[in-house]
Amino acid sequence: LLRVLDLSWVKFEGGKLPCSIGGLIHLRYLSLYRAGVSHLPSTMRNLKLLLCLDLRVDSKQPIHLPNVLKEMIELRYLRLPLDMHHKTKWELGDLVNLEYLFGFSTQHSSVTDLLRMTKLQFLGVSLSERCNFETLSSSLRQLRNLETLNFLFTPQTYMVDHMGEFVLDHFIHLKQLGLAVRMSKIPDQHQFPPHLVHIFLFYCGMEEDPMPILEKLLHLKSVQLTNKAFVGSRMVCSKGGFTQLCALKISEESELEEWIVEEGS
């Protein structure tokens, strides 16, 4: 009759989750966050009522999972491991009730799987060589309920400047955007979602000051730049910009020497 099982940080002998997990047929919540597990049993297909599943296991070794996810059709919340080296192919096409998906990789899943997830509100995705920014964003046009979109950092995406592919203006309901992708300069304001409220920029390596663009996004309430999002030395917030801004976080921008905030910004 167990409903909630948190196995975070638990170490399993031989890295194998016991087959008996499949007997917990009423389970709604299962977390394997940082668990020492590399093999998941096929009996997990019995967890038909599972609503929340966290598979961000300890990443020291690849995870092996039989093709059972597609049978968990009640899933609302799914977090996948970010290890880009594992060989697992996640077949997610039947998870039409998903509202939260973190760790989706175009290397290990098909973009067409996302198209059926029309209830998706939160998506954390990492790009691969086979699928660039432009291809992915055009594929996601149908996700009308998407409110949060995070592009996750991977060494592969950091090798490429994604500036030329950036077009997200068709995400009219998107409120929060996280970008951990390399771009030499920030895109034009017209390429951003029109009602964006929060933006988080990490590891972008922008050489040009992003503020002249960001301050024109009329609905922005919070901006975060961290981990070398901006590698220039001078930043200017001009008069009349950022009309709605409530919070600004700047950290680990080691090249920044001068920050000018004009009166009225």
From TrEMBL:
Residues 1-251 form the Disease resistance R13L4/SHOC-2-like LRR domain. Keywords: Repeat. Signal peptide: none annotated. Pfam families: LRR_14. The keyword Repeat applies. This is Disease resistance protein Rpp8-like protein. It comes from Arabidopsis thaliana. Coiled coil: none annotated.
